[in-house]
Amino acid sequence: MNRLISIVLILSVLFLSACSTRGQRVYNGHKYSAPKSYSADKNAHSSVMDTKTYSHPTMRPYVIRGIRYYPTVVSVGDEFDGRASWYGPDFHGKHTSNGEIYNMHDMTAAHKTLPMNTIVKVTNIDNGLTTVVRINDRGPFVATRIIDLSKSAASKINMIGAGTARVNIEILGFETKGKKKIPTQKELKASPQKATVSGFALQIASFSKVDGALKTQEVYDNTDGYKTVIKDMENEDGRIFKVWLKGFKSEQEARDYKAQGHFENAFIVRED
User: Fold this and answer.
1) Is 217 within 8 Å of 228 (Cβ atoms)?
2) Other residues' Cβ atoms within 10 Å of the Cβ of residue 169
3) What's the whole-model pTM score?
4) Distance CA 264, CA 40 (A)
5) Residue range 191-202: mean pLDDT, rounded
6) Measured between alpha carbons, how far is 105 from 57 in angstroms, rounded to an integer?
């Protein structure tokens, strides 16, 4: 009988191990970066998903325990209700689905279908507490659960003791490299006024697509203390995005700076 019980216990352990969908544990000497938190302000995140995410392997359909899951593109403002759980020490130091090393102290979470790097606000429906997390893993693969929070995230909404909680999930945006978001026409037209000191600026570049303007703005912003802004305009060929360097106290200051030759083909402009 004792031998039979031992066999049953061994088979149970093997079964549970086979059902695990988490990655292998990495070496114990892994150095974790300082835990990162995420803002609840939607404007702090990209309003569109990084184009590279669309073709990433984590967006392909996959099968777990006979169930096929289909990762889905979502939009800012989408909301979902369900039950949250959390995972901690047993998975600390293992690989997540997107290749990162799971750190139970980071503000992250696992979801079955949300794109990786989606930023979501999780609200505990029973006590009103909220936490903001970034999706970097797949799971939980339990029909009654919608999201698996890191230990730190779960503690923020006071669900460690209970183990699970009824939650609302709201999509706040996406974490992407480079600029946080592509501004709307209204935002682009309003932006130059924020840095106006005089009516004179230096036009350093122009583009037919906003991506080039955004990259130039990021590279040269705060050059020698001057601010880059994007002017969204129309000409006979259509929409054009001009990058201006602003903050000059006078036309002469702008001309003196232009004469230093920092920007080839730059010229003085005046805003009406």
Assistant:
1) yes
2) 23
3) 0.58
4) 41
5) 58
6) 26
